[in-house]
Amino acid sequence: MSAIEISKVSKIYSGDQRAVDSVDIAIADGEFIVLVGPSGCGKSTLLRMVAGLETITEGEVKIAGNVVNRMDPAERDIAMVFQNYALYPHMTVYNNLAYGLKNCGTPKAEIAERVAEAARMLELEPYLERKPRALSGGQRQRVAMGRAIVRKPAAFLFDEPLSNLDAKLRVSMRGEIKHLQKRLGTTSIYVTHDQLEAMTLADRLVVLNGGRIEQIGTPLDVYHKP
Ligand code: ADP
Ligand code: ADP
Hints:
With 226 residues, the protein is of the alpha/beta class. It has helices at residues 43-51, 93-103, 108-121, 137-149, 167-184, 195-201, 219-224, and strands spanning 4-12, 18-27, 32-36, 58-63, 66-67, 78-82, 155-159, 187-191, 204-209, 212-217. Helix 2 packs parallel to helix 4. The longest helix is centred in the last third of the chain and has 18 residues, at 167-184. The structure holds adenosine-5'-diphosphate (2 copies). The site of one adenosine-5'-diphosphate (ADP) has 5 residues, from helix 2. GO terms for molecular function: ABC-type transporter activity; ATP binding; ATP hydrolysis activity.
């Protein structure tokens, strides 16, 4: 069974133009899939349909065996990481990390344990009492990842998470994501327009063009075949 199964999925925003056109991807447990392709090719729309932030016009998405088409984002057992971090500015790092867990009624002791574990993994321990404004861009991005990690979801969905960072930080955060991926082995879908990011992170790349899959394969298959 695939961790995520995207079957004949299409998105029509209006008229008969398909922003995503009959896409099939079967994602194995623990696989890191990167969606690439030119601006407007449908990467973000496809990711948002998996996340439940956009309705699915046609087709079916299954996560951990369940059809999620009609489920709310919160019910889908996924955690999303955005480029703008989406942190709560008035909350401390600790409470930013804990917030999602508090909301779904996780016991306090377990919240503390999971937050501590994520903070350790992401080297955020010294900053737990700070507000986001007192953090660097890289630290904020780590908090955003921490919020996803503490939930222990079936899948991570990344929407260009590093595109707001400067070039140097992007390279180091790319390495951190790779490291976390090895350590956690969580099934992931990652959207980027950065080829190096795609090549470094992907088990398999999906190249979209005009809403359709143009190529799918390992970075070696996609970038090095004549
Ligand atoms: P990418 O993430 O690859 O840049 P998008 O998924 O954002 O591509 O967009 C795919 C297509 O869908 C584009 O033609 C875009 O203009 C269109 N689109 C995206 N969001 C909307 C929307 N909310 N309403 C109408 N059209 C949209
Ligand atoms: P709230 O207004 O949500 O209660 P608090 O700042 O009082 O926010 O913290 C909520 C809970 O998280 C409290 O039980 C607090 O003791 C705990 N907490 C806050 N910061 C830390 C931390 N750095 N380490 C462990 N627990 C913490």
